[in-house]
Amino acid sequence: MDPFLKELVVIFGGNAILIGTVAWLLRSLLTHNLQKEIKQFETELKAKADTAIEQLRSALQIAAVEHQVRFSKLHEKRAEVIAELYKKLVQACWAGQSFVSWLQMEGGLTQEEKYVAAMNDLRTLWVFFEGHKIYLAEALCTSLGTFINDVRRPLIEFGTFVQIKNPTPETAQQHMDTWIRVGEIFDSKIPKAREALEREFRGILGVN
User: For 44-98, what is each residue's pLDDT tens digit?
Assistant: First the structure.
C-alpha cells in the first residue's frame, strides 16, 4: 500500500477511535447523570406524595371531628326538641282527657273553661311542632300531625255541645252520644297513638 494512504488510515483511524471513545464517555456520563437525576426525582416525588398523603389524612381527621361535633350538637338539639314536644303533647292530652272525662270535680273549672284550656294547650303543641319539624323525620312528622288532628277533632265536636246554654231534648241527647263517643276515643285510640309516638321518640334518642 502506498505510504501516503497508510498515513491517512492511521490518522483517520486514530481519530475514529478517539471520537468513539469520547462518544462512549459522553454517553456514559449522560446515562449516569440521567440515572442520578431520575433517582433524585423519584425521591423528591415520594417525599411530596408522603407530604400530600399526610396532609390529606390530617384534613380527613379534622373533617371527621367537625362532623362528629355537628352530629353531636344536632342530636342534642333533637333531644331537646323531642323532650319539649313530648311535654306539650302530654299536657294537651291531659287537658283533653280532663275536658271529656265523666268525672267533673265540683268547685273546679267548668267544662267550658276546660274546653278553652284544652284547645289552648293543643294549639301550643301544634305551633311548637310546626316550628321544629325540621329536626324530626318525615314519618314522625306525619304521625304527629295525624295524632294532633285525632285529638283536635273530637274536642271541637264535643266542645260545640258544651257551649250550648239551653239545649233542646234532641240536642241534649246528641250531646250525651257525642260525650260517650269522644270519651271512648280518649280512653282507647288516643293512648295507643301516644304510645306509638313514645316508641318513635325513644328510637330517635336511642333509648330502648
Answer: 777 777 776 776 676 666 655 555 555 668 778 888 888 899 999 999 999 999 9
Q: What are the cell numbers at 203?
A: 328510637
In whole angstroms, how far apart are CA 12 and each of 20, 26, 69? Answer: 12, 21, 83
Delimit the domains of the chain by residue range: 76-205
Q: Compute the distance between CA of residue 29 and CA of residue 26 in angstroms, rounded to an integer.
A: 5
Contacts of 129 (CB under 8 A, 6+ apart): 85, 141, 144, 145, 148
Kindly give, in sequence order, each residue whose CB lies less than 8 Å from that of residue 126, ignoring residues fewer than 6 positions away: 148
Q: What are the angstrom distances between the C-alpha of 102 and each of 30, 109, 181, 184?
A: 106, 14, 12, 11
Phi, psi (rounded to 5 degrees) for 28 = -65, -45
CA distance 143 to 201: 11
Distance from the first to the final alpha carbon of the chain? 113
